[in-house]
Every structure is written in C-alpha cells, then in structure tokens.
Design a protein that fits this description.
- The protein has 167 residues and is mainly β.
- The chain folds into 2 domains: 20-114, Immunoglobulin-like, CATH 2.60.40; 126-164, no CATH class.
- The chain has one helix spanning 2-10; strands at residues 20-26, 29-31, 34-38, 42-47, 81-86, 91-96, 108-114, 129-134, 146-151, 156-160.
- It has a 4-stranded mixed beta sheet, with no helix packed on it. A 3-stranded mixed beta sheet has the order 3-7-6, with no helix packed on it. The chain has a 3-stranded antiparallel beta sheet with strand order 8-9-10, with no helix packed on it.
Length: 167
C-alpha cells in the first residue's frame, strides 16, 4: 500500500471525466432540442429517418450568422450517423438543419457548453504538511537520508535529511 502511495506521489496524473450525448434527428425535430454539456463532451447526431444535417454556421431561417463560439456544419445525409463533435469552447450554441424547409418547420436546437474547469488560483489554501515518510513509505523514521513531505494541496517535496547524513 505504501509503495502505491509513493508511486502516486511521484507520478501524479489528472483524470478528466468526459461524457457522450446522442441527439436524434427526424421529421422536423432534434431530440432533445436543448442540451447542457461540459467542455470536452462529445455530441452524436443520429438519423431516425430522412435527409438531414447539423448546421452551426448560418441560421437557415433568417440567413444571419449564429455567432456561436465556433462554427461548423455537416454534409446532409440519410445515413444513421449524421455527425459527431467534441465541444472544446464554452458558450451558447444554436443550430438547425439547413436541408429544405426543415429549420422553419422546427428542426432547430441549442447546446450550452459549461466551463467545467476550476481555476486553482481561486482557492485560498494554506499549505500544511499532512505526512512525512521515507522512500519506502515508512513514517516517523528519524534515521532516513531521504524524506518525502506530503502537503494538503497534493504537492510533495523530497528532502535530504542532513542531520543523518554521514560522510
């Protein structure tokens, strides 16, 4: 167990949770028509029948730009898989199906991409020592030449114990 802790301290990693969502497309609809996701999440549009696309560029009803944080459009298709996209920029997105009169008949959607990252500088955390141990994971060993100090913010420091170093 202590070896595992040492490995974790020496090789820290951050794991991000990413989700995948599916939007069905059919006879003048996207379902769900609105969705809230996080940065890094993937949205898949599937075809329940017909010839459709996903258009995040120009509003097919008004002709004006959607002004989304990023713009893209898929090629119209009758395939089951219409399009997939990984959202990497937070913000509010609007889109429609630009095929024929699909948008004017209600084939429109919106996606809110939340910024799920946490700014570490926003925390005020007093750095405190929570554990001291040697390279083998033993604590309270005063004769060790190398000491690892673990802090409450997840950082660590390796120190030479100069009091016990002999030449």
């Amino acid at each position: 167990m202590k070896k595992i802790l040492t490995l974790i301290l020496l090789f820290p990693t951050i794991i991000y949770s990413q989700n995948s969502y599916t939007i069905s497309s059919g006879n003048f609809y996207y379902y769900p028509s609105s969705l809230t996701i996080d940065i890094g999440d993937t949205v898949h549009w599937i075809n329940d029948g017909g010839f459709h696309n996903v258009n995040f560029m120009t509003n097919s009803i008004s002709g004006s730009n959607f002004n989304n944080p990023e713009s893209f459009s898929s090629i119209p298709t009758s395939d089951y898989n219409i399009y997939s996209h990984v959202f990497t920029i937070p913000g509010n997105y609007e889109y429609d199906c630009s095929v024929g009169n699909h948008a004017i008949n209600g084939m429109i959607g919106s996606i809110i991409v939340s910024d799920n990252t946490t700014n570490i500088n926003s925390f005020s955390l007093k750095k405190e020592i929570i554990s001291k141990f040697n390279i083998l994971g033993k604590s309270n060993s005063s004769f060790d030449k190398i000491v690892i100090i673990l802090y409450n913010d997840g950082t660590y420091k390796k120190l030479l114990n100069l009091d016990n170093l002999t030449f």
